[in-house]
Write a structure and sequence with these properties.
It comes from Flavobacterium orientale. This protein is 12% helix and 50% strand. The chain is mainly β.
Length: 50
């Protein structure tokens, strides 16, 4: 199971969310972190996507 972290960032005009998920590499088996800044509505899709 991948670790999921979500932080909310607010700017003057937009509300953005930074999502970080831990993904296991199929080649080496090592874990890497994937970060993305997006609208709050898109976070669930980002975390569910493999």
């Amino acid at each position: 199971m991948a670790k999921k972290t979500v932080a909310t960032l607010q700017t003057a005009s937009k509300r953005l969310t930074k999502a970080i998920k831990m993904v296991k590499s199929p080649k080496t088996g090592a874990y890497t972190f994937v970060e993305s800044v997006m609208a709050p509505e898109l976070v669930d899709g980002f975390l569910k996507k493999k």
